[in-house]
Amino acid sequence: MTHPLTVAVLGPGGTGGLLAALLSRSGHRVICLAGETTAGTLRRTGITVRSRQFGDFTVTVDTDTELREPVDACLVTVKHTTLDAALTRVPPAALGDALLVPLLNGIEHPATLRARYRPDRVAPAVIRVESTRTAPGVIEHGSPFTEIDLAGDAVPRDRLDVLAGHLTACGTTARVAENETSALWAKMSFLAPFALLTTRYGLPLGAARTRHRDELQALVAETAAVSRACGAPADPAQALARYDAFPSTAKSSMQRDAEAGRPLELDAIGGALLRAAGRHGVAVPVTERLVRELRAAGH
Ligand SMILES: NC(=O)c1ccc[n+]([C@@H]2O[C@H](COP(=O)([O-])OP(=O)(O)OC[C@H]3O[C@@H](n4cnc5c(N)ncnc54)[C@H](OP(=O)(O)O)[C@@H]3O)[C@@H](O)[C@H]2O)c1
C-alpha cells in the first residue's frame, strides 16, 4: 500500500486534472496524456487546484502526448465526444497489464474499451464530484465530496482494492463496487433525468423539478425500468427524493456544456438509454421526446 504508483491520466480536465493533482500531491508519479498545447502548459505550470474539500495547491506532473512507458493504471477522463480520438494516445501494447479506469458517465464505453484493450484490465469507475477545468492545468473543485466507485467484474479484486486504497489515501472516498452493471446504472439513473430535463428547458434543477414535475417523474420511472431490465436495481422514489434535496441552483454538466456551446454527451446518456430500452423492449416515451427535441435543437 505504501509503494507509490505510476498513473497515466488521459484528459487532464475537470475530473482528470483533480485526480492527477491529488495523486501527485500524495507522492505518486502522474503522467498526464494530452494534446501538444495542453501537455506543454501542464509541463510548465503543473496543475493548480482550488478546492473547498482539499484546499488550494499546485503540483508538478509529467506530461506526454502518448503513453510510452509502463504504468500501474491509466485513468480515462475525457468526455465521450472525444473518447475515440483520445484513445489513440494509449496504444494497447503500451498499456500492457495496467488497469484502464474510465471515469466517464454513461454505460456503453466499457464495451468499447474491452474491444480494444485487455478486457480483464478494464475497470470502469463512477465518480461523484463537481470539478471544472477553467483553463489548461487550472481546476476549480466545487463539491465538498469526491466519491469514486471502482468496478470491473473480471478485474482481479486485489488490483481494484489497491487502487481504491491509494485513491482514498489521497483524499477521495473510493470503494470497490461489487457489481459493475449496478454501479454504472446507479449513476445513470440519477444523471439521465437530471441532465435531459435541465438541458432541454435551460432551467436549474429547482425550477425544472417544480415546473416540469410530471416529466421528471416520468423520466425517473422510465430510467428505473430500463435499469431493472439491464439487471441493476433501481429506486425511483429515492431518486426523486435526491433531486428534491439538491440545491435549487444546481445545474447538470450537460446543461453547462449547452450554455457554453460545447458538444454534449447526449448520445452517451440519452442515446445509450434509448438503445438499452430498445434492446429490452421497455417503453420510454418521455425520454424519447426529450432526446429528440434536444437533437432537433442542434445538440
Ligand atoms: N467534471 C465533473 O464534475 C464530472 C463529474 C462526474 C462525471 N464526469 C464525467 O467525466 C468525464 C470527463 O468530464 P470532465 O468534466 O472531466 O471533462 P473536461 O473537463 O472537458 O476534461 C476533458 C479533458 O479531455 C481532454 N481532451 C479532449 N480531447 C482529447 C484528446 N484527443 N486527447 C487527450 N485529451 C483530450 C481535454 O483537453 P484540453 O484541456 O486540452 O481541452 C480536457 O482536459 C465525462 O464523461 C463527464 O460526464 C464529470
UniProtKB/TrEMBL annotation:
Residues passing through the membrane, by range: none
A GO biological process held by the record: pantothenate biosynthetic process
Pathway participation: Cofactor biosynthesis; (R)-pantothenate biosynthesis; (R)-pantoate from 3-methyl-2-oxobutanoate: step 2/2
This protein's record includes keyword Cell membrane: no
UniProt keyword terms in alphabetical order: NADP, Oxidoreductase, Pantothenate biosynthesis
Keyword Oxidoreductase carried by entry: yes
Homology family: Belongs to the ketopantoate reductase family.
Protein name: 2-dehydropantoate 2-reductase
